[in-house]
Design goal:
alpha+beta
Length: about 400
């Protein structure tokens, strides 16, 4: 559970963070991203130095005893990208690894190494004819982002499963501000039908629910609420998008439901509570005009009573400049049930932020609150200097 919580903290960094791990270079949307998801092929082509369409014409098998990886001879069927002008269709090349193939299989062969006379091949990916046609039609990286996204949307849930996956990954990797550009082009009927179809991949439910939040109606809100309230043993990443889409459609009225069903009950399964927390973060970072910031803070404070989630809530409340809990956090610090290093560190970071924000900064607490935070921090420093030092070591202030 610890590693999962660390990832959650880093993906939506609070104003004071513990930078124990670097976030990924990519910035996919937090509600829909899974660390196991591959980079979309179109993006790989765009950042590659060379991308070839190849077909295997011969191979030497790998030898486990000698650790020989094998070898594959490919014929170049087509050159998709070749910045060095080294390759021509019809020629052959050797790839230093055996490739398990079926007759007539087609692959993409990538190289990302620049400034080399000889290409250093990275990897191969088998593709269908439909995916190849799709890749050729992708608007270039300089095209308006809305045009690119419209192109991808038309292939969602395509009959060719690989093509459908590629289109889905492109949207999943997109920032929400860009997804909002799709609002005129989205079909709520299609989204709803995909969500109700038992054949839809569970990993796609989060994104489709989020998109439904952009274009849905009251009936769709009721449907999403029913999914949230229906007990399920498979509560995972998909619920986060459902909660976010639901709150986009229902605002504070829906947040009352989330508070009651997912946040207020300390016995609620932790995955459901985390999904609700992610929904709160989403609305804070992408306000829809139907939930006030004070209302979001109120919901986040409900998680302070859960030791397994308190550190996440404290970090977000610091990022959200909720100084109303300054004294309560000191009570938690001295509570045996909350004697957990990550919670103690989050509390110290909260106080550090409160006292280091300039008084004229709009994010700063009232002077009286800042003074109490300084007193609390001084008290902690006397009894737990190591935690304070560790928190200070990784603390930085976001300007």
């Amino acid at each position: 559970m610890h590693s999962a919580k660390l990832i959650l903290v880093l993906l939506v960094a609070p104003a004071a963070v513990v930078a124990e791990e670097a976030p990924p270079d990519r910035s996919p949307h937090i509600l829909c991203y899974s660390a196991q998801d591959p980079e979309p092929l179109a993006r790989q082509v765009e950042r590659s130095v060379t991308t070839l369409v190849v077909k295997p014409v011969g191979s030497v098998p790998r030898n486990e005893t000698t650790r020989f990886p094998g070898e594959t001879t490919f014929e170049i069927a087509e050159v998709l990208k070749d910045t060095g002008g080294q390759f021509t269709a019809g020629k052959t090349l050797r790839y230093p690894e055996e490739t398990e193939t079926e007759d007539g299989a087609t692959f993409l062969l990538f190289s990302f190494q620049e400034d080399r006379k000889d290409a250093q091949w990275s990897h191969t990916v088998p593709i269908t004819d439909a995916v190849l046609r799709y890749l050729k039609g992708v608007p270039g990286p300089d095209a308006p982002i809305a045009d690119r996204l419209r192109y991808f949307v038309q292939f969602l849930e395509h009959d060719d499963s690989q093509l459908s996956t590629e289109a889905f990954l492109e949207l999943q990797y997109s920032e929400f501000e860009n997804l909002e550009l799709l609002k005129p082009d989205l079909s709520r009927r299609k989204l709803r039908s995909w969500l109700t179809d038992s054949q839809t991949e569970p990993t796609r439910v989060s994104l489709y629910s989020l998109l439904l939040g952009l274009v849905g109606n009251a009936d769709d809100a009721s449907y999403l609420e029913a999914r949230i309230l229906t007990p399920s043993e498979d509560i995972g990443l998909e619920v986060r998008g459902i909660v976010a889409g639901y709150l986009m459609l229902t605002g504070e009225e829906g947040l009352d439901v989330i508070d009651r069903e997912m946040l207020a009950d300390p016995e609620e399964p932790i995955n459901e509570a985390v999904s609700a927390l992610q929904g709160l973060r989403f609305l804070w970072d992408h306000p829809q005009g139907n939930v006030s910031k004070d209302r979001l803070r109120s919901s986040m404070r409900l998680l302070l009573g859960r030791p397994e989630l308190a550190d996440l809530a404290i970090s977000d409340l610091a990022r959200w400049n909720d100084w109303s809990v300054a004294d309560r956090l000191m009570e938690l610090y001295n509570d045996e049930d909350f004697d957990i290093p990550s919670i103690k560190k989050a509390i110290v970071q909260y106080y550090l932020l409160a006292i280091r924000l300039p008084p004229d900064d709009e994010r700063a607490p009232p002077r009286e609150t800042a003074a109490r935070c300084a007193e609390h921090l001084a008290q902690i420093r006397k009894i737990d200097l190591e935690t304070v030092r560790r928190a200070e070591r990784f603390f930085f202030l976001v300007k």
